[in-house]
Amino acid sequence: MGKSANRILGFDIARALAILGMVIVNYKISMDAEGNGPDWLVTLTGILEGRASAIFVILAGIGISLSTKKARLKSTSSKEYRKMIWRRSLFLFVLGILLMLMQWSADILHYYAFYMFIASFFIVASSRKLILTVVIIVLTSQTFQLLFNYEYGWNTTFEKYEMFWTWKGFISNLFFNGYHPIFPWVAFLLFGMWLGRVDLQNPRIQQKFMTVSLITLFLTEATSYVFIKLSESAVGIEVALYLFDTKPMPPSLLYMISSTSSAIILILLCVMISEKWRSSTVTQALVYTGQLALTLYVGHFLVLAVFFMFGGLAENTLTFAVTIAVIFFILSTFLSTWWRKAFKRGPIEALMRKISG
Question: What is the SS3 assignment for 4?
Fold first, then answer.
């Protein structure tokens, strides 16, 4: 399998499952299938919105923390690590902009580039500083949402950011009201860097984090529901949802807490599963799939491009969109397994490593 015995396979599994969630959400939206299905499926796919992407970003933070552990613990110079992250950030930015030019308006890679660039300055930061920065970023984002026009740059249906290719629109999209703006999304990455310093293979820590996350998730969702109900009559349902919903747009304080909690729960479950069934065929297939996440991200867009060429993105049912997403994921597990048995990294992952070191 070509993996280290010390590698925490649960992170790769979590990344694989996040791919599935991301593809379902993106296909649902791109195929114009939102709400066009049975209630249970509408609810299920709605829950996934913004959460799969949050898992990806938190896992990226964990990865940075683990890969730069030597610089943090052994007082090794962080300069080379920082340069490596900058090169990878540039690679992801260029790749993301290329996807944007190919009409993939929901791209997250160009945002990732800036998250990683910012994170490079926190490689050796104390855990306390990381958490404090996370809190400041989230509160600053909440303040922005109260002070500024969140609809700026979007078309009337909120489906396309029309001003993306202007300087003012690009800055607003990047920092404030895009799909995954720096405020507050970089907080996920910094929190992941903090989480990467925790021994998540320790049963006692697993139990503690799982309990706290479950309670926090329940309380946050309950708070969201109650606040929306209490404020609806006074400010209207749209304003109530804007302030207190746990959907990703806008990324409210409650959304950030809820998504972080659900991400921790999934990551911990994957770590536990990987420890119990480390050598199973399914575990290995999911691990391989998670290791090719960047390639599969680009691949899932190319599938959408094919549908677009043949006019298959208009007025589909939610069942159809989810079925295509699941088929893509299943095929991805087989192709990833085949590829990883022959090569150490995925094609785009290998290209990024070759360019950035």
Answer: coil
User: Which two three-digit tokens encode residue 95?
Assistant: 């790749």
Beta partners for residue 161, in sequence order: 154
- Which residues lie across from 140 on neighbouring strands? none
**pLDDT digit string, tens, across residues 21-38:** 999 999 999 998 988 889
Per-residue model confidence as pLDDT tens digits over 64-108: 999 998 877 776 677 888 999 999 999 999 999 999 999 899 999
Contact 350, 344 (CB under 8 A): yes
Angle at 86 between CA 83 and CA 91, to 5 degrees: 130
**Token pair belonging to 186:** 């970089």
Q: What's the whole-number average pLDDT of the chain?
A: 93
Structure tokens at 352: 């990024």
Which residues are CB-neighbours of 174 under 8 A, at least 6 positions away?
111, 114, 181, 182
Cα–Cα nearest to 286, from 11, 7, 83: 11
- Three-state SS for 13-33 is HHHHHHHHHHHHHHHHHHCCC
| Per-residue DSSP letter, 5 | T
Under 8 Å CB-to-CB from 257, ≥6 apart: which residues?
Answer: 216, 220
User: What's the start-to-end Cα distance of the chain, in Å?
Assistant: 23
Question: pTM for this one?
Answer: 0.95
280 to 106, 180, 209, 284, 291: CA distances (angstroms): 35, 35, 26, 6, 17
| CB-based contact 247:288 (threshold 8 Å) | no
| 299 bridge partner residues | none
